[in-house]
């Protein structure tokens, strides 16, 4: 009687490399990738993939989550969506992850002034219930001319760089506004000679 050998699951480094090789042909290879120091990213196979596409691989500081600030913000947003729609039990989160990602990508983000979906594709994301109406409106608007619709899409793609530059400027303005609000809440302390104060070890030396 023979024993059937169980098939071992795919290795994590191979899975990570497969994801990147799927994303690069679709969205283009970035100039640099910042990752943590996990074994999923620090291995020979991942290094070869980065060299193949000419991507600089940078490692974040250990135990310093602020290095990947945007990733932490995105993960916190996804976690909040799943907690409110599915529940705090994480066992069923994987089943609803695609829906949560869709909601996150199509939601309007105040710092960038648009949706992440529009930032990638250069157009708004329409729901299936909207497609029937939108398709009918588009056909009426272009008088059933596919060439006109194609030219309009080319204009949208050409405006993509301008849209991303505008999103970058909006992000800077939002950060400056947030900093002003934060600084306004700081109270100026007046110290007199002889007062007892707490001095931080990282503070600059007093003149």
From TrEMBL:
Question: What's the superkingdom here?
Answer: Eukaryota
InterPro entries on file: Gypsy_RT_Integrase-like (IPR052160), Integrase_cat-core (IPR001584), RNaseH-like_sf (IPR012337), RNaseH_sf (IPR036397)
**Gene3D superfamilies from the xrefs?**
Ribonuclease H-like superfamily/Ribonuclease H (3.30.420.10)
Instruction: Cite the GO molecular-function annotations of the record.
Output: RNA-directed DNA polymerase activity
What's in the keyword line of the UniProt record? Answer: Nucleotidyltransferase, RNA-directed DNA polymerase, Transferase
- SUPFAM superfamilies recorded: Ribonuclease H-like (SSF53098)
Q: In what residue span(s) does the Integrase catalytic domain sit?
A: 1-124
Q: What is this protein called?
A: Reverse transcriptase domain-containing protein
Taxonomic classification, please? Answer: Eukaryota, Viridiplantae, Streptophyta, Embryophyta, Tracheophyta
